[in-house]
Specification:
The chain is mostly helical and 148 residues long. It has nine helices and no strands. The protein has helices spanning 7-17, 22-30, 39-48, 54-65, 71-80, 85-96, 99-110, 118-130, 135-142.
Amino acid sequence: MKKQPTLRERALQLLARREHSRAELGRKLAAHVRAEDDLESLLEDLLRRKLLSDERYAESRAHSLSRKYGAARIAHELRAKGLDKGLAEQASRIARATEVERAREVWRRKFRVAPRTREEQARQMRFLQSRGFSFDAIRAVVGSPGED
């Protein structure tokens, strides 16, 4: 019969695949806690040994999300994963610096041509807004109908 991995082994396996926030790792491990396990002390030990880091997770996740989303959406996604608001805002602030270029790339992949009517412009703007890009970035990318 196959031996079940310990809670520490499960944690290390998850962390070997990718970065996790403390809250996310805690949620994943909670289903596997046995009577002799102490989840909180395990998480604290992983933090102390720098195997688990909310800062690293925020930076890594913000980087991967920045290919598709704006700073507002990145901050929202990070908060949804259990990061505190300050850390999420700090990670999304880096994305804010390149928001116009990233919005232009997302727009180019989706639409390729400038809007010719107000309806097309509104549709393209709504799309970029749903991706969390700022109004200033959206206006810089989409502009007004008929503009070259």
